[in-house]
Amino acid sequence: MNARVTVGGEVKLPQDVLDALHLEPGSVVNFERGPRGEVILEKAEETPRLSREEYRRRLESFVGIAGPGPTTDEVMRMTRGED
After folding, report:
1. Do residues 3 and 14 lie in contact, with contact meaning Cβ atoms separated by under 8 Å?
2. Conformational region of residue 56, where left means phi above 0, alpha means psi within -120 to 50, and beta covers everything else
3. Residue-wise pLDDT tens for the chain (83 aa)?
């Protein structure tokens, strides 16, 4: 089985490989190096996409987690090496 690499580094996988790995457009694959230097291609476990609301909820859970932190003037003094 052969495939040609394009100038952009893309390879069209043979249909046998697509079928064997159950790949379809948009599928994510992993490449690993085997013990003899061979390259192993496998279908990646896909993480379901978060809804916009779930994404926002998760981000909002981090708000304020680091505490108030230094003021801008304090950061500028530290940056300048002032005590």
Report:
1. yes
2. alpha
3. 888 999 999 999 999 999 999 999 988 899 999 999 999 999 998 777 788 998 899 999 988 888 888 999 999 999 998 86
Predicted TM-score (pTM) above 0.70: no
One-letter amino acid for residue 82 of the chain:
E
β-bridge mates for residue 45, sequence order: none
Could you identify the residue written with the tokens 């002032």?
Answer: 82
Of 42, 6, 39, nearest to 23 (Cα)?
Answer: 42
Specify the length of the chain in residues.
Answer: 83
Q: What is the dihedral of CA 50, 52, 57, 59, to 10 degrees?
A: 80
42 and 29 Cβ atoms separated by less than 8 Å: yes
Return the structure tokens found at 64.
């304020």
Is residue 77 within a helix (H) or strand (E), and if so which, with residue range? helix 72-80
